Structures
1.
Amino acid sequence: MARRIHTLAGYIHEYQRSVLNPDDFWSQIAETFHWRKRWDKVLEWEFETPSVKWFLNGKLNITDNIFERFLYTKGDKPAIIWEPNDPEEPHKVISYKELYKQTCQFANALKAQGIQKGDRIIIYMPMVPEAAVAMLACARIGAVHSVVFAGFSANSLSDRINDCSAKMVLTSDGNFRGAKTIPIKDVVDEALESTSSVEKVIVYERTKTPVNMVPGRDIWWHDAIDGISTENTAETMDSEDMLFILYTSGSTGKPKGIVHTTGGYMVYTYYTFKNVFQYRDEDIYWCTADIGWITGHSYIVYGPMLNGATTLMFEGVPTHPHPGRFWEIVDKFKVNQFYTAPTAIRALEAFGNEPLQPYKLDSLKVLGTVGEPINEEAWHWYHDHVGKGRCPIVDTWWQTETGGILISPLAGITPTKPAYATLPLPGVQPIIVDNDGNELKGNSVEGNLCIKFPWPGMLRTTYGDHERCRQTYFSQYKGLYFTGDGVKRDEDGYYRILGRVDDVINVSGHRMGTAEVENAINEHPKVIESAVVGYPHPIKGQGIYAYAICDLSDRSEENLKKEIRLTVSKIIGPIAKPDKIQIVPGLPKTRSGKIMRRILRKIAVGEVDNFGDISTLLDPDVVEKIIEGKDTAS
Ligand code: PRX
């Protein structure tokens, strides 16, 4: 297969080539695809505005490069293996040929419902193959998909619908998650009360939960495809036409719509999947993410399928109906590459080794992690007990904005080191800067992680607000993309990600902006003001610690805390619920009114001395009062 790196020397060679001559490097990879018209120029860029364009004037369709490209050689190969939430329900195996048919048919159905190239479609669905079909069908006709994780609240959903003026929502009657059935169509109905752009809702029947179908607006998936042709010619797209929008939290209150375009994203997810996981043609690859996150986009759907891989999709959760569920699935399908999040690893490790005992796990060749720093302890457990010491761990560092993996070992090719993402992939040029933007050269340095040269999978803008993209990522350090992460480069030149340096908390690998959570808490009528910080959590990586000034005149502290959690759940979704809430008489603020989170972060971890200079605080006594009340946090 084209462009696979086989040896460490090969990696070093390819890396050097990619830096010395990026145009040649990336065009050789892009040449392995089917383009309806070849690009005129590989790259045009500047990181001021910013403006980044790859494969300029190239014409293509990403689904042509999944289906038409593989139909003769891999038509009967399983594209998706789907394992349902309930182990008693039969699994499904969908070949490339079958997935192609379903995608074409649904693409035609979307058109029949009035969807045109460029229209935005929200996908708010469970982890069923139809969710992948929905994404691919959008890509086929040039509609822009925006997948919203089906655990987000009606309020979060309507914000996203409104931000991109979506014309359609794809959803289902319900969502099986462990022992629960979540009526997600009801959430859509509620969200649509505060939106006006949505004309049609297509509802996939999954749980047989009774739903209210609004005449003229709502249509069942099976009715939408009834009698619709399974033949479809893909729309011709420009390399820089939008492929999808994915919303993610930042340090301000409102999630941003990260925009990825067609040509560069295709080339980048293809290349990184192939090399990081070292996927071989007969392998079964499983990524446990949800398609509502970027990992699901790049490494369940696009990356694997662009490689003609077999990708396993799991509807359920790691611990239902028992904590050996993941391992049961690995053995059932003889999974070769297994890619999950540190939070899942820690949660499963907490059950001890017993749940692993009944399973052989001998098919595993590669283990992967993503989403947050993995602690050495969890790394070793994963390595020794899941991988039986045989499987390299690829600790893959990347972001929604980067589209694909930027820093990671290549499985079995480049060295691994516990808790280190190790080395940049070819084409990726990291740079570490201090807070003034000075480059920290050489090894054994620690600072802010930036990237100094574009890579094809990077974001192009934030939807509807390019200035926000500039400000968030390209304004701190002149001429650099700023990741928001702190990093260390050790004595061997390996990178270790240290976590966010901005006001973003990474809860179980999910990004939450502190301002976003505070805004939600403040919606409770009895909350006067709040401040949220992250603190180390044994399973989630980081937990959310909220300090709130409240009016407790007519309810108990316990009840108020319950209500606050409910409010956050309703406004953002259950993943944003604070783990600890402390009711406080005041917050430590500077004279200019800025909350000193540094102090709150220290108190949250029990470090109650050494605050440094607090004389600039408006009311220094408040710190003492917060410390005194620390034990009331719950
Ligand atoms: O802080 C880094 C952390 O997750 C952030 C990106 O979050 P998101 O856009 O939701 O994407 C997650 C999946 C790609 C990063 O800024 N992060 C991601 N992977 C790692 C990581 N931190 C440490 N090690 C990783 N492997």
2.
Amino acid sequence: MTTRQHVIQQFSQQFDTHPPIIVRSPGRVNLIGEHTDYNDGFVLPMAINRATWIALRPREDDRVIVHSLDFEETLAFSLSDIRHEDAGWGEYLKGVAWALQEAGHSLRGWEGVLAGDVPIGAGLSSSAALELATARAFAAVSGFAWDATTMAKLGQRVENRWIGVQTGIMDQMIVANGHEGYAVLIDCRSLETKLAPLPAHTAAVILDTATRRGLVDSAYNERRAQCEAAAQYFGVAALRDVSPAQLEAASTELDALIYRRARHVVSENQRTLDALDAMHAGDAQRLGQLMNASHESLRDDYEVSSEALNTMVDVARAESVCYGARMTGAGFGGCAVALVEAASAGEFAERVSKRYQAATGLAPNIYVSTATNGAEIVAQQSGS
Ligand code: GLA
């Protein structure tokens, strides 16, 4: 049974009627442009075919009651009395309600069933998927217009202000702005987007190392602070404004560690723009080379990779059908992404799985993903 069927079935069982509204909100994988978003730079992610689903109906009062099939827990709260409680999945829903009301929306209550198949903590943005799914649910029952980028910013605000994690805008932007068949170049300063097709006959394969790292938050905040220090040295708003030549000229004067961190960001921004060109030219070789260079830079200059990620990337690259591979997301664990010949993607997944397992003793999860739409209403019965 698909996750979609599961939420529909469970809703129907619980409420004895078919759900009038069904929301789908995907996870994402970033092809290139890592740790650039909070430097006002460029990213090139795509929404994936794994998503959070909510089957719901409006309520007459201001209560929100949601049952999570994954956690086997029910969340219930009143829109006039939203409180911080714990750090669980429910905080994302409450945070979205809080942020929407703070933005001036008058909200209506709803009830429903929630489930997802975006792995949690794997670096595929299950939290952004949940935030945008919730925002979509509120928009559907409360009747306000949906603007993807406005809602992405709202999702980021939830992360930063309600959850307390200082993430950039990439995850919410792609989860809100994903487009079937395309990756999306996002300018994280202007929030302009450009569609970019994968080169013909290629596929993006997500390689989950089956490792998770608990200390990501502190390392992430430390990298952010180092980037801010570099921007301050150059007297600019963000590293986006520093050219490779400017950075090179400062190489002896700048603190060696800060220099390497900045070199990653400055070079990664250029690689991401080059990747957009390569995609428009349909040049899989070039795109693969850029992905490889991105990994090296994240591993050596930015130091956010891990042994498991490096092994996964090596194992993937050893396959002749692989154009390039790199870690993806914040790092320290989670997933890598590879660009491979589409016709051989299944075989590639099997071989990489075996070789990674032989090298590490860990059983990886491997998904061949198409690019999908961002958060959307997939069914809405009129009159509801
Ligand atoms: C996490 C954050 C994003 C981005 C990436 C690294 O996914 O949520 O904002 O900074 O790490 O590129």
